[in-house]
Amino acid sequence: EVQLVESGGGLVQPGGSLRLSCAASGFTFNRYWMTWVRQAPGTGLEWVANIRQDGHETYYAGSVTGRFTVSRDNAKNSLFLQMNSLRADDTAVYYCARLPYNGVYSNDYWGQGTLVTVSS
Amino acid sequence: DIQMTQSPSSLSASVGDTVTMTCRASHTISSYVNWYQQKPGKAPSLLIYAASSLQSGVTSRFSGSGSGTDFTLTISSLLPEDFATYYCQQTHSAPHTFGQGTRLDI
Fold first, then answer.
1. Do A104 and B46 count as a contact with CB atoms less than 8 A apart?
2. Residue B41, pLDDT score
3. Order of strands across the sheet that contains A68-73
4. pLDDT for A32-45, tens place per residue?
5. Residue numbers in B near A111 (CB within 8 A)
6. Which of B1, B34, B85 is facing A106, going by the closest CB pair?
7. Nearest Cα to Cα of residue B55 among B45, B67, B46, B43
8. pLDDT, tens digit (0-9, with 9 covering 90-100), for B35-77
9. Spatial contact of A45 and A60, defined as CB atoms under 8 Å apart
């Protein structure tokens, strides 16, 4: 059974940093692109970042470029999101998701999410 | 960046109805569209990929169509568990933008 479990969320002050983790199991992690998506309270989904299987190709939303870094440790089946210079509008539930290619890329499995609150 | 515009933003229907919602891309994106369902407090779940392919395990009451810039999601014979928010997403090019969502209410 595919499982994705996020952790690392919490309350952080504006300007602070936080590192999210996503533990993957039930599939061969190093064969898949992975994605971070976030959802601010009461709003829609916002794509944040993608990372290639080997970690050497990444893409970011303009709203996080230069502040967030996605990475992975294939030996530990783990995905990470390092978030720096956090702002109030980064407050959201952050989801990790698998990104297989079946003619198109689509996020077929999602974690339960971890809440990040940026507030003083 | 490719913008995805969903309409309507909300939709009221009854059990047993058939509903259709649309998603328009700001640039042509072939069939690089996915549809997700999200219920309150839960993660999204994939319904349709590549505009019209049904994700494994998803009921055939869901169907998708379209190509280029205009896409539709149709839900037939609505059941109580179908009342949720639906999002389209393009994966033609990064950033993989989502539409703003269509909330389906009773």
1. no
2. 95
3. A3-7, A18-25, A78-83, A68-73
4. 999 999 999 999 99
5. 43
6. B34
7. B46
8. 999 999 999 999 999 999 999 999 999 999 999 999 999 999 9
9. no
